[in-house]
Amino acid sequence: QMMKFAWDNYKQYALGKNELRPLTKNGHIGNMFGGLRGATVIDALDTLYIMELEEEFQEAKQWVEKSFDLNVNGEASLFEVNIRYIGGLLATYYLTGEEVFKSKALELGEKLLPAFNTPTGIPRGVINLGSGMSWSWGWASAGSSILAEFGTLHLEFLHLSELSGNPVLCLLSLSQVMNIRRVLNRVEKPQGLYPNFLSPVTGSWVQHHVSIGGLGDSFYEYLIKSWLMSDKRDSEAKRMYDDALEAIEKHLVKKSAGGLTYIAEWRGGILDHKMGHLACFSGGMIALGAQHAAEERRQRHMQLAAEITSTCHESYARSDTKLGPEAFRFEAGSEAMATRLSERYYILRPEVVESYMYLWRLTHDPKYRHWGWEVVQALEKHCRVEAGFSGIRDVYTTPPTHDNMQQSFFLAETLKYLYLLFCEDDVLSLEDWVFNTEAHPLPINHTDFKA
Length: 451
Ligand code: DMJ
Prior knowledge:
The protein contains 15 helices and 20 strands. The chain is α+β, with helices and mostly antiparallel strands.
């Protein structure tokens, strides 16, 4: 019902734009997707499909067939286009078998390849989808590329490579992502940690900021999921994940005075006792990775995953709206709460319910369903407006002020993970599917994997 409401309003007021503005009842285009349109359509497709919202799925599919134009000429985020568009199209192709989704994914994938033309092969963050020219984000220090961006291509590019009938595209997409691994394996890592900024020219780190939240997050996620997606054959990815997690456990995992476990950020050896909402995906990731470890490690990691997820739940429980802030800190007198005005907002992000979904599936502890239901109630109470769902500007104020944006990841991720939390385990079973970082399911081992 929430998904139908979000979709119906997007369709009515913003179809073909990237997102719905639910207060002003119009569409938002933004500048992340280089002239591509319909981000919400592509992100919503597989969620509509698995929820059996058939009429709505057909509406979305028709838009892809008739109106989704790939001949655009703007500056796009390589990462965002990959996780939302390529991920959404690939997942819908695998779920439905309908060729249109595969051919659009391949066509778009080909347009992203020039981003890898750098001295190291580490792609830059921004690409012009028309000319193929690429460059780094203006805000990224010294022309660097971002770990979470170039480290979050592997799952989709492997599938593009496997699906492509074109031997050049097949070889290119595979060799590009395998080369990223090579560069990362070669470079020295401070205390085993991966900093967030790397030069695509020299292949060395540009700044020593480490975070399992924004700028780093999905790099770690794609290591463990690459191994799972290969049906546990990609042992290099597993080794990299294990080593990275060991360094994180050793240097970043902390316990607050009030007994809350959290993962701090690291700036050149100095800890910043802060967790972003984005970092809350890590409870689910660590639980997923723990399933395949030896017993002692499995227990330790399951406990860590549960503790982090519980801390993220606290960040929701300690707010007046029962939704969590963009970032929360652990300081004297204040734990798991935002202490800065600029960090109090909630933009319909999925990471906390994502971890509830994994922890539920892997433990069947009913508290994860209770916590998920609390989120459903809070979304209904504070984020539902007349024409859709909106983010809010301050989770500590009721009634909240709305930000007038229904993010596409709300339909791709937040609502999908909530749905899966209350489904039987065999709906998109974790044995058969891995979710890309935008919650688009990709099949495990559907063909022979060779890397
Ligand atoms: C999503 O686009 C993806 O989950 C990404 O990895 C991080 N941020 C957003 C949602 O918060």
